[in-house]
Each structure stands twice: as structure tokens, then as C-alpha cells.
Amino acid sequence: MKASTIFIFYMVFFINPILGEAKIKTQISGQVMDSQGVALPFANVALVEVESEKLITGTVSEDNGKFDFSTSQKGTFQLKVTSIGFQPFLSDPFEVENDESRDFGKIVLQEETADLGEVTVRSSRPEVIIQADKTIVNVEGTVMAEGSTALDVIGRSPGVYVDSDGNINLNGRSGVIVLIDDRQTYMSAADLANFLRSMPADNIKSIEVINSPSSRYDAEGSGGVINIRLKKNTMNGVNGSVQVGHQYNGLNTPFTGATVNVRSGKWTTNASLNYNEWARIIDLDIYRRFQVEGGLSNFDQEANINIRRRNLFFNGGADYQINDKHSVGMSIQASGSDGPDRGLSLTNISNPNTADLNFLEAVNNNETNSQRIFTNLHYIGNLDTLGTKITSDIDITRMETGSLGFLDNSYWLNERVNQESDRIRTDNDMLYTIYTAKVDFTKPFKNGNVIETGIKGSWVRSDNNLDIQRGVTGELLRPDPNSNMFIYNENVLAGYVNYKGKFSDKFEYQAGLRGEHSDITGNSVTLNQVNEQRYFDLFPSAFLKQNVSENYNIVYNYNRRITRPNYRLLNPFVFYVDPLTTERGNPNLQPQYAQNFEMSHNIKNAYQITLAYGRITNSFNQIMSQNEETRESVFQVQNLDRADNFSLRFTLPFELTEWWSTSNMLQVYYNRFQSPLGDEMLDMEQWSGMVRTQHNITLPKGFKMEIMGLYLSPFLEGQAKIRGVGWVDAGVTKSFKDDKISLTVNATDVFRTQVFRVNVLFDQIDTSVQQYNSNQAIRFTLRYKFNRGENFNVRSRSGSSEEQQRLE
């Protein structure tokens, strides 16, 4: 059965059940604030029947403190608002008799003041929160996050798969853009992976997985958006934490860090400094077969690569509340990384016409370093009581990377005598600077509709100098013709408008349009080759929410998006992996475009069934080719005509007992890639699946445990078939001294099953790869939380996990 037939069958017979007649609803809204006028997110808002004290419905306040929900029941009710560290709010009784809206305006919660030596604050929240437009994965305070990196926690998010090189896929699609607090990083995939490995998970509050972004977001990212929310200071007074830990995966890697938060009067500041080491032992086996006269020539390669990085990461910020309507602030991120790569590979080459064996030994020694500093200045203005807001941001980013490597190769026949040798020296330095500025304006109307609009400009420049020298070992090295100096400039000007409203209580909608003008120039100074791309594109988005009942809604999404080739992909460089393997840039690479459709069934704001379809034109894929004469394998990112993706995803959280909760995701998806490739036509398709389950267990005597398991069935990426892979991670933590001290033990890839296997069988190519990255590890983390001041107010961004899962 064709995928399109299955899609239509599912749409008609399973997706649109009518669960009941639509009922007239009363809309209830408001905003939760503290006594200083600061919005309170994650406050529990409940509608309670006066006579029976029964919970009818409710919600959780958003990041701006606002809440909005509806009820179809009539009667006498009270609104109850609670947040840990604050006194509960209970409204006067009120009648609900018709469909009129009821706006409670600003609800001010009074802080509970207590001596922290006598008070233990405990709060929990669901690991995964399902919202109509995104999935939020809570990272802060979780067992598995202790001692982890940002890339680790992204890889544990629902629908996300991170491959052995750090490339990120979402729901079976590549082209995923990673934001940090809604801001682009503008890095290549390799640089981004290294940066995320340097960022401790301890700095992260949550991960937002956005499959269908609205026009408010940059159009970049055809595969979806992953937004990293960093922690903000949410407590009055002075507080913070210090951590120290150690990991062993065959190599020893220490890590340590400290965080300090200060909130006093109109000032809120925070700073964190972390040091960690990241190390891997990569075992790599590559088997290549070449057609020669008389049969097949086999290239059997075994490699061992030892990588170590020393990372330093600083994150800090300050906000000043000018008055109850206006605030300004700044934030700084600074990171540095350096370390060696040491590789040794041995290749034996057989020929069907002789019994002789040729051998090639390659020794690779590489030193790398990188430094990045990011600065943001921002302003927030709340212009009226309806929620009219204007925000502006100016960002400046500067990043430098460098690597110096020596590849020493030795060749011999049968026995290691009379060997020949040569050396390749590679020196690669890169500098890029990024300037961005944007203004966003939000205007709510009295009828509840909202218009959003904004403009943005970004200016990117990258200077890349690749110097290659090669020659016979012991002799003077000579310049290689593949050396290259490349200058890349990218300027993007954008504007958008987005409108939210309601057709009725049953239907809510959102429609947006974003326009982006791109001006890109790639200049290979060495080759005297200039490649210019200028284009203007429109990116529409649409959102429709059908409220079938109080506990069930259907959300329909559509958007059009783009992924532009970055400086590394467009640079016509040649990078030597070994004498038989090279990686090459592609100055002719065109942007890829995606059109995405998604339909989600949300039940009780906890369970979700999502059906999605996406088509990408000019799809980016790493293509392998080979030279039958020289036996050289070449890897290059190229455009494929089209890539189609269907996916069906089930999100199923359960409270098994009072002490055991679980979050589960089951996904089935289909990929098909079609394009002329050389003299052949590529047409490959495959059905695949992913299962992810996470268990949170409260053990006796204050112990907590988390277990996460993931299995990904065989799947397709361009011309490559990736075999199935799965693994299990686990962690346990124990707190002491009123939760001030905690000790956490984590184990990753417990059964050593996270082995990546790839096969490429296309045209004349017959290659198999197996790689293991020493993911099996044990990690110990000791953390101490501190606070100063006899009395100050405790705030928390979370409430009871059980209550939040009950509320709509």
C-alpha cells in the first residue's frame, strides 16, 4: 500500500471522530503576578465548584503569567490560584450562566516569607508538557541532566535523534535549527555539535521541540526548531549552587561549575561558570568493495580515534525593572574549547588477481581550539493592561576556531619492509562575526484577538583559511593545490505579521506571513571564484485549533520553511580524512525548501496523536561517490530533487502508581528520496519507527531514579541505510540536609548497544561502516545549593506534577 493511500485512509477513518456536539463555553482569563509586578509562570489556575469543592477544569500560567481556559458547565464557582512559595488566591464566588467571557485581570499573589533553615520547598512537574504548538521537555532538576551536556538532553527529547557525528534529526527529518532563548546560533553542524557539548545541561531550564513554527520565528530550519531555554533567576535574595563530578567511559573526565543568582529591588542578575572535559574513544570499521577486472577489490579498514576536549562555559545576565511597564537587560555567553584528536587506522587491500595484500597505515594528530562570545542587549515594554508589548534585541556574536593537523601515511606490500611514507599538513583557521537586530510588537484586542508583527536583520561574515602542505616524510613539504581562502557574507532582512483569533468558542486560528530577502556571497580568493545568491521568499503559516470538548482538541498546522547552505557547505575546500577519503565543499549548493503539514489530537493536555507530512525540495544530503581508478571515496553535501516524510506519533504519559510515572512516545515514519545522481536515478524509500520511554521512580528514604530507553529501527538518509540502534540510560539521586546537598549517579548506554551501522549500496558504491563512540559511561555528581539572608522569598516555576496533568 502506498504511503499516500495510508495517509488518506487514516485522515478519513481515524483522525476526525466527532465526540459530541459542541457546547457553549465561558472563557476565563487573567494574569498571575507577584507583589512586585513580575509575571509568575507555571502557577496552577483551577476552577472549583463552590458547593462540592470539586475541581472542574483549569490550566497552568504561561511564561508571561497569563492564563486562558474555558468551561461549558454552569453553576457557582471560585477561581483558585496557587504557586509554591506564595499564599493561595481564592476569588469571590461567581455565577456562570452563559457564554460571556470573564477576565480576572492581574491576580497578585503574596509571597510567603520564611526562614529557609526551617522550610523545605519541594516541587515537581511533568518531564514532558504537551502544548498545542510545541512540546516542552523540562530539564531543570531532572536526574539525567546532572553532569550531562546540552547535546545529551536534546538527544533524549521526544522525536529527536542525534547521530554519531552530532547531527540532529527531528521526526525522521534533517534540517533542524537550534535556537538558544529564541536566537539563532548561525553555526555549521560540526561547530554546533561541539558548542552544545561544551554547554552544561545544568544551565538549561527546558527544551522546546517545535515541529511547526509560526511566522514569528525565523524561516530557517526546514526540519523544525529546537529552542533551548536557559535558566533565569526566579528567587529573591542571593542563591546558587556548586557542583563537582567525574565521568569514566574508558577515559577519565572531570567537571565542575558554580551558579550565583541575585535579585534585589529592581535588579535581577545571574552568573554561572562551568568547566568540563569531554572525551571519546571511537572504534571505527569501514569495509569498501571496488569492481575491478577479475572481480572485487576489498578495502578493509580498522580505526581507533581518541578525542578529548577541555571546555569552559560562562553565562551571565542582568535585568533592570525601570518601572512596572518597562525593563532593560543584557546577557553574555562566553565559551572556549581546546584539545587533541589522535587517530590510528590500518587498511588492508586485496586484489582478486593476486594473493598479495597492500597495507596502508594512517596516523592522524590534530590540535583544535575555539572561542565564542555572544552579547545581547534587550528592552521589554508593556504598554497597557491588555498586554500590548514591544520588545527589541541587539545581538553580537564572534567566534574563532582553529585546527592544526598532521596525517602521516605508510604503505607496504605483504610484510612491513621497504615501506613508503608521506605526510599531509593541514592548518585551518576560521573567524566569523554576526550582528542581528530585531523589534517585535504584540497587540491584543478586547475581543481576545492578537496581532503580532516585527522586523529583523542579520549580517554574517565568515573568513576561512585552509592551508594544506604535503610531501614525502622527512622532506620539505610543498603547498597543495587544494589550499583555499574563502570569505562568506550572508545578509538576511525579514518582516512578519501574525494574527490570532477565534471564529467561535469551538475554533481558534492563527495565520501568519513572513518575508525574507537573502543576499549571499561566497568568494574563493584562491580560486578567484565568486558565487552570489540573491532571493526573496514568502513563508506562510497557518494554525487551526478545534475544541471538540473540554478535554479534547484537534490542532492543524501548515508552514513553509527554508534551510540555507552555510559557509562550510559552500566553501570549495578539500579536507583529507585519510589518503583514500576526502570531504569536499559544494559552491553550487542551493537552499532547500520545505512544506510541512501536521495534525495533532490532544487529549487532557497529556496524550497526543500527531500525523505529519513534509516535502523538501533541493534536499541537503551527504552523498558518497568513488573514483574507480584511484579507489578514492569522496563525501559531499548535494541537493536532491525531493524528499518526502510521513510520520505518525503517539505521546502517552502514565501515572502507574503514586511513586512511578512514565512518559512514552511511539513513532512510525516513512522517508523517500528521489533525484538524478550521476548517471543513475536515486529512488529509495523505507518505513521506520522509534520508541522512547522514560520512567521517573520515587524510591524509599528519599532516593529518586530515572530510566530512559530508546530504540530506532532501520531508517534511510539519502543513499545511506542506517541499521537499527537502541540504548538504555539510568540515574539515581539522593538529597541530604533539606535538599541542600545531592549526590547523583548516572549510567549511559548501560548495555553497550549504541553502535551505529551504515550501508551504502548504490550504483558502483558498496560500503559498510560500523562505529562505536564509547558511550557506555558512569558519572558521579555532587551538588551543594546555598542561599544567604535570614528571610527572603522563595519562588518556583513549577507546581505539582499530578495537578498539572489533571488541569486542562
Automatic annotation (TrEMBL):
<keyword id="KW-0675">Receptor</keyword>
<dbReference type="InterPro" id="IPR012910">
    <property type="entry name" value="Plug_dom"/>
</dbReference>
<protein>
    <submittedName>
        <fullName>TonB-dependent receptor</fullName>
    </submittedName>
</protein>
<dbReference type="Pfam" id="PF14905">
    <property type="entry name" value="OMP_b-brl_3"/>
</dbReference>
<dbReference type="InterPro" id="IPR036942">
    <property type="entry name" value="Beta-barrel_TonB_sf"/>
</dbReference>
<dbReference type="InterPro" id="IPR008969">
    <property type="entry name" value="CarboxyPept-like_regulatory"/>
</dbReference>
<dbReference type="InterPro" id="IPR037066">
    <property type="entry name" value="Plug_dom_sf"/>
</dbReference>
<dbReference type="Pfam" id="PF13715">
    <property type="entry name" value="CarbopepD_reg_2"/>
</dbReference>
<feature type="domain" description="Outer membrane protein beta-barrel">
    <location>
        <begin position="382"/>
        <end position="784"/>
    </location>
</feature>
<keyword id="KW-0998">Cell outer membrane</keyword>
<dbReference type="GO" id="GO:0009279">
    <property type="term" value="C:cell outer membrane"/>
</dbReference>
<keyword id="KW-0472">Membrane</keyword>
<dbReference type="Pfam" id="PF07715">
    <property type="entry name" value="Plug"/>
</dbReference>
<feature type="domain" description="TonB-dependent receptor plug">
    <location>
        <begin position="147"/>
        <end position="225"/>
    </location>
</feature>
<dbReference type="InterPro" id="IPR041700">
    <property type="entry name" value="OMP_b-brl_3"/>
</dbReference>
